[in-house]
Amino acid sequence: xxxxxxxxxxxxxxxxxxxxxxxxxxxxxxxxxxxxxxxxxxxxxxxxxxxxxxxxxxxxxxxxxxxxxxxxxxxxxxxxxxxxxxxxxxxxxxxxxxxxxxxxxxxxxxxxxxxxxxxxxxxxxxxxxxxxxxxxxxxxxxxxxxxxxxxxxxxxxxxxxxxxxxxxxxxxxxxxxxxxxxxxxxxxxxxxxxxxx
Length: 197
Ligand SMILES: N[C@@H](CCC(=O)N[C@@H](CS)C(=O)NCC(=O)O)C(=O)O
Prior knowledge:
Blueprint: E1 6-10, H1 15-27, E2 31-35, E3 55-58, E4 61-64, H2 66-77, H3 88-119, H4 125-142, H5 155-174, H6 179-196
Parallel strand pairs: 1-2
Antiparallel strand pairs: 1-3, 3-4
The structure holds glutathione.
C-alpha cells in the first residue's frame, strides 16, 4: 500500500475520473481527491497539471490518462492480478477492450452526443449508426462471457461501464426529444434490415 495517499485531480462528473475512482475502491486504496475545475481552466494553471483530468500523483510519480492510471494502480497495489492479468493472452484481451473503449466506443458516444448536448446540434444519424455498430461489437465480445474480458471483473469492465452509464444517462436526457420515437424506432428498423441479410 502507498506510504501516503495517492492524489487524484478530478471532477465528480468526469467519466474517466469515475473509472479511476472505482478502480481505487475495488483495490481498497485511499485517494486524496483534489477537485480541479476544468471549466475555468484550473487544470492548465502552473500549480495544477497542464493536462487533462484525471491526473494521479503517487508520491511524485505523475500519470494521466485514466486507463493507464487504472493499470498502474493494479500493477502497483493489487493483492493479485485479477483486475489486470499478467498472463500475456489474458492481458491482451483486457488491453484490446481498453483500447476499443478509448478509440471506438467512448469516442463514438462522444461524437454522437456531445454536439447535441453541448452545442445544440442536430441528431446525426451517421454518428448514431457508428455508435450502434460499436455497441454490437461489444455485444459480440460478451458472447459466452460473464464480464467483458472473461469470467471475472477487470479494469476493462470498469472503463466500459462508465461509457454505458453515460449512454444511459444521455438516453434519459434525450427522452423528451424523440429518443424512443426517433432513435429506438430507427434502430429497430435498421436491425430488421440486418436480420434479413
Ligand atoms: N482519454 C482521457 C480523457 C481525459 C479528458 O478528456 N478529461 C477531460 C475531463 S472528462 C478534461 O480534462 N478536459 C479538459 C480539457 O480537455 O482541457 C482519459 O481517459 O483520461
